Structures are given as structure tokens and as C-alpha cells.
Amino acid sequence: MGDTFIRHIELLGYEKRFFPSQHYVYMFLVKWNDLSEKVVYRRFTEIYEFHKALKEMFPIESGDINIENRIIPHLPAPKWFDGQRSTENRQGTLAEYCYTLVNLPHKISRCLHVVNFFKVRHDDMNPVTDSQIKKPEVFFLPKDSKKNPTDITGPIVLQTYRAIADYEKSSTSEMAVKAGDMVDVVEKSENGWWFCQLKNKRGWVPAAYLEPMDGPDESEEPEPNYAGEAYVVQKSYTAVEEDELTLKEGDTIEVIHKLLDGWWVIRKDETTGYYPSMYLRKAGEVNTSVKSELRNRSAPPRRSTIRNVKSIHKQSRKQISQETYRRNSKKYIQNQRKVRENSQNKVNVIIEKNEPDDNKPKAQPAVPPRPSKDLILNRCTESTWRKIL
């Protein structure tokens, strides 16, 4: 028998799962050359990592050398916070991507990277569930959408951003832009460097130099989370601006606001400030070669440090002052302390109420008065009263 390869990949729909936390997975029916058919489940972040590795394996076919030679299809980067709407809207793009992938030259479509990614895993046969959590909700792709992949969606539309100031590149992997340039964002990295294309040019551009077309604020930027997420500092940084923090490698901090320009607001004890996200690693997460490579890059510039900004929007971006971050963060910490103290007091009260009587000190009996001499002579034996004579 020859090598194993995939004949066809069909997107069936997606599942909304609630264990270990709410997330979405896509369902694919994979048809193999031995006529077997298997259903596999993949998160979009997994698919995107697979896609990036595939491009690195075939740089010519991915257009890295000459954009005109690209045959590997585009795939938009994951959103910061994928919801059900984005998961549903992405189905057409994924269906077309799989259709194009299988029909690429055999050196790509039948390579081990593709075959291994779509092989059945243990989790595909036995998905992780919890009887106390809601069962997964299944959303199938409409049957009409499966007839012809070309009818599902048109060409992949990349997000267009506008440069607010001139940026001169400092390395060959970056791309220079002029104020007013309209660039298409291919990939948004949480480190603040976005991979963009402008006509026949492609490269990394600081997110701080780009603004969305429909308004000054980023629709994908989350709200502050004063509960905080535990992160570990992977690279030391000395503060340059007053609202930044100086930290050493190995320090443990809490991230309370993830901003798209790659400068996150963090909390160290009760102090808050900005720190480059590319120098942080989520606590408990294993370091990867990709993250090691990112740490070797310099931190992107901050929006507040860009001069000669020329925005097309009348209103400026909404900015939260550092004092607001500190006040709300301190208020959250104090509330948490009160909750812990109240719960501890309740525990102590319960222990006192339930304490057994055996552990409580018992009252001592009163000492009887000493009998008089006459009483001893009249009532005691001879041996006793002889002792008092």
C-alpha cells in the first residue's frame, strides 16, 4: 500500500463546549485514501498554528519570496476574544481553505504536516466532558453551503487599517509606512507587531501606528480585568516613561488590561503600570521556540510616544489614566481582602459554636471549711483526734 493521504475535507459545523471553560471547536469530516471517513475536532487557534507552520515549510508557495507565486490560501488570524458570531462567520472561509488545501500539489497536500494534523486523536474519539457542566451545543453548516465551496464565500477579506504617522523600519522583516497609507492586516500578534501588506510590500508594523477606519477605538480591545491573570516576566525591562514598570526576569505579576499595541497594564503588589507583553509568559504555560524568537525582538513603540499623529477621526482614542487603574485595582484588592476576612470570621464562629463541652474549662468545687476541734473529738476515731492533741 502507498502512503496515507487525504482525499477530501468537509466542514460540518462547530460545537460550543463548556468544559473546562467555554470555547468553540470546528467539526471536520476527513475522507482518507483507504475510503475511511473520520470526524475530527479542532480549535481555530490550532488551525492557525498549523497554517503558519505550513507556510514556513513552503516559503515559495506561501509567497514569502515572491507574492505572485503564492498558492497556499490565506487564513485570517484569530481574534483576541472569539465569540459565537466570529466562529459562525468564519465557517465559509474555513470550508474554502480546506477545499483549496486538499487540491494543492501533492508535496503540500500529502505532506506529513497535513496528514498528521487531521489524523484522529484520542480527544476526537473521547471528548472531555463533565456531567455537571452543560452538554456541548452543536451547530451544523447549512446543507446548501456544502454543495460548492466556491459558493460559500468570496475571496478572504483582510482588515484594512490606516497609518497615523510615518514609520521607518529598523530591520528587514519590518515594513515602512507613511501617514495615510492604507494597509491590509494579515496577522495580529498580541506582542504589538502586526504583519501587514501594502501593494507588493509585506512586513511587520507596530500596531500603535495603525488605526481602524470606522472609529478611533479598537472594537477587539477588551475591558480591564481587575481580578488579574498571573504572568511571569521572561525578559527584564527598565522603565522609560513614568507610567511604566521596571521588572526583572522571573518576577510574578498580574495582567489587568491587555491592549492591542502590545503594552499591557500590569499589577505588581499594589502598583500598576505598562509593560511589554512580549516579555511576559502566562503562569504555568510552557515556553515555546516561537515565544523565544519574539523575546529577541525589541518592544514596539507606544501610541503615546508617537509624534505628528494625523488621525482621520475627530475624537481621540479612549484612554484610561494610570490613576484610574491604580484606584480600581486597589479597590478590587481591598474587596477581596474583606471577603477573605469575613469568610475567615464565619469559620471561626462556627468552630466556637461547635466546640465540644469536654474542651471547655470546668468549674472547680469549693474547698470545705476545716472542722472544729470539738467536732473532731466527737466524731473521729481515736487515731485521728490524738493528732490534734
From TrEMBL:
A GO CC term attached to the entry: cytoplasm
Chain segments annotated as transmembrane: none
Localization (cell): Cytoplasm
Superkingdom, taxonomy of origin: Eukaryota
The entry's keywords: Cytoplasm, Phosphoprotein, Repeat, SH3 domain
Basic and acidic residues composition-biased segments: 352-361
UniProt domain PX: residue ranges: 4-125
Entry-linked Gene3D superfamilies: Phox-like domain (3.30.1520.10), SH3 Domains (2.30.30.40)
GO molecular function, one term: phosphatidylinositol binding
Annotated ranges, domain SH3: 156-215, 226-285
Region annotation Disordered: where it falls in the sequence: 351-374
PROSITE patterns attached to this UniProt entry: PX, SH3
Biological process annotations from GO: respiratory burst; superoxide anion generation
Matching SMART domains: PX, SH3
Family matches, as SUPFAM superfamilies: PX domain, SH3-domain
Name the record gives this protein: NCF1 factor
Gene that encodes it: Ncf1
